[in-house]
Design a protein that fits this description.
This protein is α+β, with helices and mostly antiparallel strands. The chain is built from 11 helices and 8 strands. The protein has 2 domains: 99 residues, Winged helix-like DNA-binding domain superfamily/Winged helix DNA-binding domain (Arc Repressor Mutant, subunit A, Orthogonal Bundle); 102 residues, Nonspecific Lipid-transfer Protein, Chain A (2-Layer Sandwich), CATH 3.30.1050. Helix 7 packs across helix 8.
């Protein structure tokens, strides 16, 4: 009885528990609910408002999002705080422990991308495409590149710094970047992973490029999806 009191966490609702001491089982107790991991994904690059999370996850209802945020907060994976004036809005932010999930989430994405049924043409959020760059980056393709590349996805702006075979991407103003992509994450994914020519996307009005076009074209080649597994049978 005493052992049960030690091992059973009060902050994990019993209906979600596998009652298994394995760390994997407990991880699923914490983030195994539908949408929970995607909510965490959206917060990996910084805090967001409730409305921003809903926009990034169009398939989630307000009620379910509220439940997931409450569950992740209860588990110690995120906190909510109020921004100072003039913003004065409430945002949700991962805790330090929550941010430690990035490598797990990215590794899971790389692993799942090998599935023959994975469809890279489906919609993706701005955070998703940025994290995919961190995951699929091929340092061997960066010889001679020393540049800053910006991305404008509506209100979300990011800058990638490529230098000495390393890639660093973060939220930042794009002003001063050597090349700037403007459009949607879905069409940028089409250019990077779908083999859609940049000129075709520009002609369609789906994506625009400002600055060093040669750099922009080369930047798109720095990311490689892992090989698909061969179907069995």
């Amino acid at each position: 009885m005493k052992l049960q009191q030690i091992t059973k966490k009060k902050n994990v609702p019993s209906h979600r528990s596998y009652d298994d001491a394995c760390g994997i089982a407990h991880a699923l107790d914490l983030i195994g609910e539908r949408w929970a991991l995607l909510v965490m994904r959206e917060l990996l690059l910084g805090p967001k408002r409730f409305s921003d999370l809903r926009e990034s996850l169009p398939g989630i209802s307000a009620n379910v999002l509220t439940q997931r945020l409450e569950g992740l907060e209860q588990a110690g994976l995120l906190v909510k705080r109020k921004l100072p004036p003039p913003a004065a809005s409430q945002v949700y932010e991962l805790t330090q422990w929550g941010y430690e999930s990035e490598s797990i989430i990215c590794d899971m994405g790389r692993w799942a991308a090998r599935s023959p049924s994975h469809d890279p043409t489906l919609p993706v959020s701005p955070v998703s495409i940025i994290l995919s760059m961190r995951t699929m980056f091929d340092a061997t393709r960066t010889l001679g590149i020393d540049a800053r590349v910006g991305f404008q996805f509506g209100y979300e702006n990011f800058v990638a710094r490529v230098l000495e075979e390393q890639l660093h991407i973060s939220r930042a103003p794009v002003e001063g970047a050597d090349a700037i992509f403007t459009g949607t994450a879905r069409y940028l994914a089409a250019a990077i992973y779908g083999g859609v020519p940049l000129a075709a996307l520009e002609k369609k009005g789906a994506l625009t490029v400002a600055g060093d076009r040669t750099l922009a074209e080369r930047y798109l080649t720095l990311f490689v999806l892992p090989p698909k597994v061969k179907p069995t049978g």
